[in-house]
Amino acid sequence: MTKRFDRGEVSVESVIILPVIIGMIWLVVQVALVIHAGNAAHFVASQAALAAARHGATLASADTALATAVESVGARLASAPRVEWASDHVTVRVDIVVPRVAPFFGDSVSRSVTSPRERFITYAER
Asked: Residue 56 is inside which H or E element, if any?
């Protein structure tokens, strides 16, 4: 007699639980994409900052290092990178596009890296 009343119980549980499980998987995938984009942005910014901080470096060498790093990680820039030169350091800020699975997450991730500039010191000055 109890078997007769339990028919369809699994269907109702599946209809309730399946969307929750799919939603959680969807959220985990989006969080992983955001973390990956953040790591890629940090790598790209650090490569450009290191190239710009070398003694005698130009903006072209920083742009070349940035383009190589973006291509190597398979990222896409959301906007033009910003390079700030100072007498003792270089700061590079990069915005990377985040692939979207969930509509309520941001479109891009930005990271900023500051690197001290190299100074050439002659042997007599050491």
From this structure: none
Question: 82-85 and 108-116 as β-strands: parallel, antiparallel, unpaired?
Answer: unpaired
Residue type, 99: P
> What is the length of the chain?
126
The answer to whether the CB of 83 falls within 8 A of the CB of 62 is yes
Q: Distance (Å, rounded) from C-alpha 75 to C-alpha 13? A: 41
Round to whole Å and give the CA distance between 109 and 61. 24
The rounded distance, in Å, linking the Cα atoms of 76 and 97 is 6
The whole-model pTM stands at: 0.81
Residue 30: count of CB within 10 angstroms of its CB: 18
Tens of pLDDT along 47-98? 999 999 988 888 898 899 999 999 999 999 999 999 999 889 999 999 999 9
Residue 78 and residue 97 in contact, taking contact as beta carbons nearer than 8 Å: yes
Higher confidence at residue 9 or residue 91? 91
Contact call for residues 98 and 78 (beta carbons, < 8 A) = no
